[in-house]
Amino acid sequence: MESVSSNGEEQDVSKDLEEGLRQKNFVRAEGLARILNRSESEIRDYQEKAFRHHVVEVRNPQGAIALAREFNFTKDEVDQLLVKILQEASEEEAQGTVEARRRFDMRTKRYLDLEEWVREYFKGGKWQKR
Questions:
Q1: Residues 6 or more apart whose Cβ sits within 8 Å of residue 110
Q2: d(CA 32, CA 43)
């Protein structure tokens, strides 16, 4: 990836980064953070947020799997992220947040809660076989 060459360009990219975060476009934020030479921990945070967004909010298994591969997540890292995501979703649901609610899944033709959805697409390394 390219990096910014002037202070003005850096400010523009920083504004774009802020806008990407505001819009929950974490994939864009990750790329912009690379251009700005941000720390690996910040970049990794955006990668994890992008993966979480595709799992929890969008429920897009193909997108989440593609991101896991693009970000070079290992099976163990994906498993740890999914455990963390399920714990956070459970806590959010207990507080009245609706992100973990059941949603219709086109492939199974059933309504799945988040835990069922994760089990369907990710448990046992299923995502690595596609």
A1: 104
A2: 9
Strand partners, 103: 112
Q: Which helix (H) or strand (E) holds 89?
A: helix 75-94
**What is the Cβ-side half-sphere exposure of residue 104, based on CA atoms within 13 angstroms?**
2
Query: DSSP assignment, residue 55?
Result: I
Give the predicted TM-score (pTM) of the model: 0.85
Please write the tens of the pLDDT for every residue from 85-116: 999 888 887 887 656 678 999 999 999 999 99
Sign of CA dihedral 57, 63, 65, 66: negative
Task: State the CB neighbour count (10 A cutoff) for residue 57.
Answer: 10
Express each pLDDT in 38-92 by its tens digit.
Answer: 999 999 999 999 999 999 989 999 999 999 999 999 999 999 999 999 998 888 8
| Listed residue (71, 32, 33, 39) closest to 52, CA to CA | 71
Residues β-bridged to residue 112: 103
